[in-house]
Automatic annotation (TrEMBL):
Database matches in PANTHER family: STRESS RESPONSE PROTEIN NHAX, UNIVERSAL STRESS PROTEIN HP_0031
Highest taxon, organism lineage: Bacteria
Similarity annotation: Belongs to the universal stress protein A family.
UspA domain mapped to chain residues: 1-147
Protein name, per record: Nucleotide-binding universal stress protein, UspA family
Pfam families associated with the record: Usp
Length: 152
């Protein structure tokens, strides 16, 4: 039924639990797994002329976030490999996380997005926004939302 499943991660405990559940789900279909980590785009300081010497450059920031993303994606890679599944991953830089997830699902020809929800509701959801809600409402592909036990 599903041949390639996209699993986004942000490195949180809830995301790690969602990743494990996504791998178990993919294993039932012997589906390939695609992992994605979306890092925020680099933001230049307001007054670039007075930039403090300790401020990261664009290249340093990108290298640092690439390493962070690869670390989180490697956790998914290990789980997928242990489950006998083919795994591909990508670190993307974007301030539009939901759009980046949907774009990756299209680029990798996924037929399902398996995404976690942190379980925020009410005013907290309103103020913080919800990547999962945005993916659910904008993605043309099927989306399976998983609510991890560690969600707060």
């Amino acid at each position: 039924m599903f041949s390639r499943i996209l699993i986004p991660t942000d490195g949180s405990a809830a995301s790690a639990e969602t990743g494990m559940a996504g791998i178990r789900f993919a294993q039932k279909f012997d589906a390939d797994v695609v992992g994605i980590f979306v890092a925020p785009a680099f933001q230049y300081p307001l007054y670039i002329q007075t930039m403090p010497p300790a401020y990261l450059s664009d290249e340093e920031y990108r290298n640092s976030m690439q390493t962070v993303g690869e670390t989180y994606l490697n956790e998914l890679r290990i789980m997928a490999t242990q489950a006998g599944l083919h795994f591909t991953a990508e670190v993307v830089f974007s301030d539009a996380v939901a759009i980046a997830i949907i774009d990756a699902a299209r680029r990798f020809h996924c037929d399902l997005v398996f995404i976690g929800s942190h379980g925020r509701s009410g005013c907290q959801q309103l103020f913080l926004g919800s990547v999962t809600l945005k993916v659910l409402s904008a993605c043309p592909l099927p989306v399976l939302m998983y609510r991890p036990a560690t969600a707060t």
